[in-house]
Write a structure and sequence with these properties.
The structure holds two protein chains of two kinds. Chain A has one domain: ABC transporter involved in vitamin B12 uptake, BtuC. Chain A is about 70% helix and about 0% strand. Chain A has helices at about 15-25, 25-40, 45-65, 75-90, 95-120, 125-145, 145-150, 175-200, 200-210, 210-220, 220-250, 260-270, 280-295, 300-315, 320-329; strands at about 160-165, 170. The longest helix of chain A is centred in the last third of the chain and has 27 residues, at about 220-250. Chain A is globular and about 50 Å long. Residues about 1-10 of chain A have low confidence and may be disordered. By secondary structure, chain B is an alpha/beta fold. Chain B has nine helices and ten strands. Chain B has helices at about 45-55, 75-80, 100-110, 125-135, 150-165, 180-195, 210, 230-235, 240-245; strands spanning about 5-15, 20-30, 35-40, 60-65, 70, 85, 170-175, 200-205, 215-220, 225-230. Chain B has a six-stranded mixed sheet, with helices on both faces. In chain B, α3 (about 100-110) packs across α4 (about 125-135) and α4 crosses α5 (about 150-165). The radius of gyration of chain B is 18 Å and the shape is globular. The chains are: A mainly alpha, B alpha/beta. The interface between A and B is medium-sized, with 29 and 40 residues.
């Protein structure tokens, strides 16, 4: 998508081609970032978190930034995927590929159920309906103790080994192996999201965001397009949830909490909702800041809130969107 | 479709909003290949009539037949896919998309809507079609600009290109020249006349003078009812129409 009007000052000659390259090869650029991340961040565990939450924000932004729909219920999609993977491993001892594969299916399924009701509304009502439905999902997870562990969370999500073809077996408890697993799965999902944005459906979604009445007059079925967007967003967020479960070895019930829904909104806006990589950048900035600040004070949310407000007030395109805007002009 | 046959037929169309009757018992025929204008003073029910004919909302009573098929109550996107295109009274484009993409995505609606896995560039002919339509409405030089950056008159022209993108059999235009300069208006009326040669055109217009010179048929609405119908000459000679427009800027 074309960048927004950027200020003409703040010129950094020489870097503009780099920004252009990154926009043209957004998937490959993201893969490079995924490869470099463990080297740049202080710990592999933090890098894994960034990738999982980055994917969550990216999936959310498919609906928010590209579709113009603000959902406050994405925790249910992340949680749906997380519990699916968690139950597959903890209850059934599923192999890694099945445990990961079931996550996007669960996310899409939950999204379909929520979407059927939610896409009938728009604007603030859409936000409220998705919030209400995700709270229902939260209480289901809270009550279904036998499956989810309820309040204590689902424990024992231990992926002990990652069996590859030709008899190769990797140690699933090694953080580097987990990072590799999470990064490869996220990398494939990023390529899929990019493909969706380039598709005819992606064009219809953008048209709908720009002018719903006009899109309808063109012949687009507004509800069908929105429902599909919600389901695809659910698949991506579900996968992110599954990866998070493997990373943490536990699925806390807070995964489904509405604060987690708010987190997706925050990460997307912080990083830049109008850029492809923005949500990832938002997740990286947020988690890095958290790990740094939380060491000094327990009032981390206060700092996060301040940073978020400053970002909304002064960097409307988010960290990444603003950076790209500067580099391109 | 032969010229002279009914492309679109309204049978006893009526619409109430709460207790207010905006339109009642309007029966009319829009013949294929002709330019029919719907005129009337403010509050005559023109916009309601237009919205019923384009499927924006369903009528309270009556039927709408398109090529002999009853399409009453179909959702609006079905109207569009059947070949009924419209322009909006208030300019409606996709402001942050490029001008070319506005027309391309409008044309795409007929061939691909929910395919999320192939690349949109692989849909054959849409970009060429978009370029040809932009040339026709005189916007080729603006193709790469964001639609929201265009001047008002240019956006109206873009809307027509978007309405034509799906190659509709029937094109309905709601006060298309609102806010246009006199030159733009003249150019637009020429375009509307040219379009009528290839498809059925319905023009809803407040200003009677504008449409008299280019219309094949004219319908006059007044107080939500059909007051008169005929050729421009017949309408001009009609005593009742004169009375309605008397004392107003006709």
């Amino acid at each position: 998508m074309s960048g927004t009007a950027a200020p003409t000052r703040a010129r950094l000659p020489g870097l503009a081609p780099l920004a252009e390259w990154g926009m043209r090869h957004r998937v490959f650029g993201t893969w490079l970032a995924l490869a470099a991340l463990p080297l740049l961040l202080p710990s592999t565990a933090l890098a894994t978190s960034v990738v999982a939450y980055g994917l969550y924000a990216l999936g959310f932004n498919l609906l928010f930034g590209w579709g113009g729909l603000l959902s406050f219920g994405h925790a249910a999609l992340l949680g749906g995927g997380a519990y699916a993977t968690g139950i597959a491993i903890a209850h059934y001892g599923a192999p890694w590929w099945a445990a990961i594969g079931v996550a996007p299916v669960a996310g899409a399924g939950v999204a379909f159920l929520m979407g059927v009701l939610a896409v009938r509304t728009r604007g603030i009502y859409f936000a409220m309906v998705t919030l209400a439905l995700s709270q229902c999902a939260y209480h289901v997870a809270y009550q279904a103790v036998g499956w989810t562990g309820g309040e204590n969370g689902l424990r024992g999500v231990n992926l002990r080994e990652v069996a590859l073809p030709f008899g190769m077996v990797l140690d699933g408890l090694d953080p580097r192996v987990r990072y590799g697993l999470v990064a490869v799965a996220a990398g494939l999902a990023v390529a899929a999201v990019s493909r969706v944005l380039d598709s005819p459906f992606g064009a219809a979604l953008a048209a709908l965001r720009e002018n719903e009445a006009r899109a309808r007059a063109c012949g687009y079925d507004v509800r069908a397009v929105r429902l599909l967007a919600f389901v695809l967003s659910g698949a991506v967020c579900g996968l992110a949830g599954g990866l998070l479960a493997i990373h943490l070895s536990v699925v806390p019930v807070e995964t489904m909490h509405y604060a987690t829904s708010g987190l997706a909104v925050m990460l997307a806006i912080l990083g830049g909702m109008h850029s492809f990589f923005g949500p990832f950048a938002g997740a990286a900035a947020f988690l890095l800041l958290e790990s740094a600040v939380a060491r000094w004070t327990e009032h981390w949310p206060l700092v996060a809130g301040t940073v978020f407000m400053l970002c909304v007030l002064f960097f409307r395109e988010g960290i990444w969107g603003t950076l790209v805007g500067w580099l391109r002009r | 479709m032969t010229a002279g046959g009914a492309a679109l037929r309204a049978e006893g169309l009526g619409k109430s909003f709460g207790g207010f009757r905006a339109l009642s018992g309007v029966s009319a025929e829009f013949r294929a290949g002709l330019l029919t204008s719907v005129i009337g003073p403010n509050g005559a029910g023109k916009s309601t009539f237009f919205n019923l004919l384009t499927g924006a909302f369903p009528p309270s009573e009556g039927r709408i037949l398109f090529g002999g098929r009853d399409i009453t109550g179909l959702p609006q996107h079905r109207f569009a896919r059947l070949g009924i295109a419209k322009s909006f009274q208030i300019t409606a484009v996709f402001p942050r998309l490029s001008v070319a993409e506005n027309v391309r995505v409008a044309a795409q609606a007929l061939v691909s809507r929910l395919d999320f896995w192939s690349h949109r560039a692989r849909l054959r002919g849409l970009e060429e079609r978009s370029a040809a339509l932009l040339a026709r409405v005189g916007l080729s030089h603006r193709a790469r600009r964001a639609a929201g950056e265009l001047a008002h008159g240019e956006q109206r022209a873009l809307e027509v290109a978007m309405a034509l993108a799906a190659d509709p059999a029937l094109l309905l235009l709601d006060e298309p020249t609102a806010g246009m300069s006199p030159e733009e208006t003249r150019g637009f009326m020429d375009l509307a006349r040219a379009l009528a040669g290839e498809r059925t055109v319905v023009l809803v217009e407040h200003k009677m003078k504008l449409v008299m010179g280019i219309s094949d048929r004219v319908l006059v609405l007044h107080h939500g009812e059909l007051l008169a119908e005929g050729t421009p000459a017949e309408i001009r000679a009609d005593e009742r129409v004169r009375r309605v427009y008397l004392g107003q800027r006709a």
